[in-house]
Amino acid sequence: MSATPLRRPLGTILGAILIASLGLAHAAEPAKVGFVYIGPTGDHGWTYSHDQGRKAVETRFGAQVKTSFVENVPETADAERVFRELAQQGYKVVYATSFGYMNQMAKVAKTFPGTTFMHATGYKTAKNMGVYDIRTYEGAYMLGVVAGKSSKSGKLGVVGSIPIPEVIRNINAFTIGARSVNPKASTKVIWVNSWFDPGKEREAALALIAQGSDVLMQNTDSPAVVQTAQEKGVQAFGWDSDMSKFGGKAQLAASVLNWGVIYNKTTEDVLAGKWQSSDIWWGVKEGAINIDNFSATLPADVRKLAETRRDAIKAGTLHPFTGPLKDQAGKPFLAAGQVYADADLKKMNFYVEGVEGNVPK
Predict the structure, then answer these.
(1) Distance between CA atoms of 109 and 105, rounded to whole angstroms?
(2) pLDDT tens for each residue of 133-183
(3) How far is Cα 218 from Cα 196, in angstroms, rounded to an integer?
(4) Which positions ≥6 away from 48 have C-beta within 8 Å?
(5) pLDDT band at 8, cuts 50/70/90?
(6) Nearest residue to 258 (alpha-carbon basis) of 167, 135, 126
(7) Which of 104, 210, 217, 349 has its CA 20 to 30 A from that of 236?
């Protein structure tokens, strides 16, 4: 007698199909990827460049991810609240894009071990928290080379944001680059104690110009410095992105960030389940930063020199912080041929020779 297969009731079959379809729908849900910004996405500087990186993630992963961002988040308890809410909402990875978010993110990371947290420019890590940064000093150095060649007075100016090692390092690299082509070049710095404050940035630029600076760099986020430079007939640089549309006659070149290469790699590792906490610090070599958007009025030999220096950095044959180098007081801190270690660069708290004034306490 042959066996007869058991026949399940129609309702049971339909229920199984429904459960299976719901399972497939759940499996197809995109991974949530969150970004927390210090400023507005329209700042045309730091936050704008990070948001371009977020868009690169969307382009790279398509329906696999769903990205979102929260802008204008202060470096206070508000940041902790935002990180916590994103984790509670099931975000797979959360990117924090400002140094001042470090302690808040480290605290939240302890509470949500299943979420991957990534903090930009910081140094605290955990099993589920990594750090990442771009070697912005490489861009500052390249701009310095152009500045040293372009300045008629040899007096350069920098509008500084907040005196942390990252910004001091950029000021020093800019000055080293300028003095590599004009040993008499000097740099004045005015601090605005804010990442994004167009009014203060403008006032600082005006003060530097009044003190004789004819080429300006900034480590702030708005295009106010480039706008002011054009208004006053001096020259400046785009910082973090191309700012020529705000001062096409003033901008000599731009240091352009590409956070997308970091965000794509990290997101890929998280989705693949192979992410591990690490300290990412990428630069020209990895395609994370470049000097670009040269002015049509910039002499061809100056552009070629800047690009040659860039290519040497990419090849590993040039490091901006290579001795002999002296500090502001004229005391050697790096012997001839010696390269400043990353660990020392990350805690830099002094000016190099050629920078005027004192580092704020």
Answers:
(1) 6
(2) 999 999 999 999 999 999 999 999 999 999 999 999 999 999 999 999 999
(3) 11
(4) 41, 42, 221, 240, 241
(5) very low
(6) 135
(7) 349
What is the chain's mean pLDDT, rounded? 93
Look up residue 33 and give its amino acid.
V
State how far the Cα of 176 lies from the Cα of 341, in Å rounded to an integer. Answer: 16
- Whether the pTM exceeds 0.70: the reply is yes
Q: How far is CA 24 from CA 21, 29, 31, 33, 65, in A?
A: 5, 9, 15, 21, 16
**Is the separation of the CB atoms in 174 and 144 below 8 Å?**
yes
Sheet holding 186-191, edge to edge: 186-191, 155-160, 215-218, 235-240, 251-257, 289-292
Q: Is 320 exposed, middle or buried (0-12, 13-18, 19+ CB in 10 A)?
A: buried
Whole-angstrom distance, CA of residue 230 vs CA of residue 236: 8
Indicate the residue type of 151.
Answer: S
User: What are the two backbone dihedrals, phi and then psi, of residue 257, each rounded to the nearest 5 degrees?
Assistant: -95, 145
